[in-house]
Amino acid sequence: MKLMKKSVLVLFFLLVLIGCAGRKAEQPQPVDFRTGTQGLYLSFVSNLPPPKLYDREPLNIMVQVENKGTETVGPGDVVFLSGFDTSIITDIPLQGVDIPTLEGRGPFLPQGGVDTISFRGRIQPFSSRRIDRYVPTLLLTACYHYETIASAQVCIDPNPFAPTSIQKVCTPSTVSTGSQGAPIAVTSVEVEAAPQKTRFKINVQNVGGGDVFRAGADALRKCSPYAAGLTFDEVDFIRLADVSISNIHITETCKPRDNSGHLRLVNGQASIYCEYGAPPEQSPFLTPLNIVLQYGYRQSIARQVEIRAVS
Predict the structure, then answer these.
(1) pLDDT tens digit sequence for 194-238
(2) 58 near 88, Cβ under 8 Å?
(3) Both 123 and 160 in a single domain?
(4) pLDDT digits over 35-81, tens only?
(5) Three-state SS sequence of the chain
(6) Chain centroid offset of residue 131 CA
(7) Pairing mode, if any, of strands 137-156 and 78-82?
(8) Which is nearest to 52 in space by CA: 141, 134, 140, 139?
(9) 163 and 206, same structural domain?
(10) Same domain for 154 and 167?
(11) Cα separation, 158 vs 172, whole angstroms
């Protein structure tokens, strides 16, 4: 009888241990989320709008918006519908529709937020216009703010010309950083060591396929296809929000920047030059170089529809 009780207790404890191990295995694991070259991803929902419809019918359009990057998108960011004659297709809000809050990907969130946006218009009768067919290309344009956060592990050597007999854990060199889950990427950091000073060349590129413009509400309003449009001194600008190393902010050493901290992309690319001073008596060491970029971004998709007169 005692042997049976012991066997039952042993079996009970084994089941408890197995259950605990199972629960531990089910715990979410952090993922490498700062990858990819997209911010928002837009797509028309199937058959909304349909490829063919008739006048006097409602025009229903539904778009899926997915945040494939790491920065939260939300109210204040807007989607516009354009590309049509506003006297033929009416009731479409020309001020656009706010993008719902969509969280970005995170260490325990491998997929960002997903939602839908709807436009409902009405097609006016063709009879008074003496036309029997109208084929517009509907253009959907998203205008939103975004941010890139990049980190590169760089080698700092305050005394690069020290005797070669001194053991060094690293040698300053170019570091490839890839993509950071955003349409603007820090692609690489070139490191040049000098006595008591390290220089960085930070290479930036527009990899998202859309248009980049200055961060701020003024430029965001001009992004609308119904506005006067973004000007030459607003397009292809990004704001260098912060550059830091060893918990020391070195943004003020970085060039080129205008008075508002922006730099311009040329052919979708730019380079930022920054400096960091380290104590000469310190031996070479590896440390993260952190970079934060802020900007507005515009991207579009299109779909053609055929509208026929009711016979």
Answers:
(1) 888 999 999 999 999 999 999 988 999 999 999 989 999 999 999
(2) no
(3) no
(4) 889 999 999 999 999 999 999 889 999 999 999 999 999 888 999 99
(5) CHHHHHHHHHHHHHHHHHHHHHHHHHCCCCCCCCCCCCCEEEEECCCCCCCEEECCCEEEEEEEEEECCCCCECECEEEEEECCCCCCEECCCCCCEECCCECCCECCECCCCEEEEEEEEEECCCHHHCCCEECCEEEEEEEEEEEEEEEEEEEECCCCCCCCCCCCCCCCCCEECCCCCCCEEEEEEEEEEECCEEEEEEEEEECCCCEEECCCHHHHHHCCCCCCCCCCCCECEEEEEEEEECCEECHHHCECCCCCCEEECECCEEEEEEEEECCCCCCCEEEEEEEEEEEEEEEEEEEECEEECCC
(6) 44
(7) antiparallel
(8) 134
(9) yes
(10) yes
(11) 10
The answer to whether residues 77 and 92 belong to one domain is: yes
**pLDDT tens, 88-97?**
999 999 999 9
Residue 154 has a CB neighbour count (10 Å cut-off) of 22
* Angle of CA points 238, 188, 216, to nearest 5°: 10
Count of structural domains, the chain? 2
Can you tell me the distance from the alpha carbon of 16 to that of 25, in angstroms, rounded to the nearest whole number? 14
**193 Cβ contact partners less than 8 Å away, ≥ 6 residues apart:** 155, 156, 157, 158, 160, 172, 199
Record the pTM.
0.86
Query: Do 124 and 225 reside in the same domain of the chain?
Result: no
Per-residue pLDDT tens digits for 129-179: 889 999 999 999 999 999 999 999 999 998 888 776 577 889 999 999 989
> What is the span of the domain harbouring residue 224?
148-296
257, two tokens: 């920047």
Rg (CA), the chain: 28
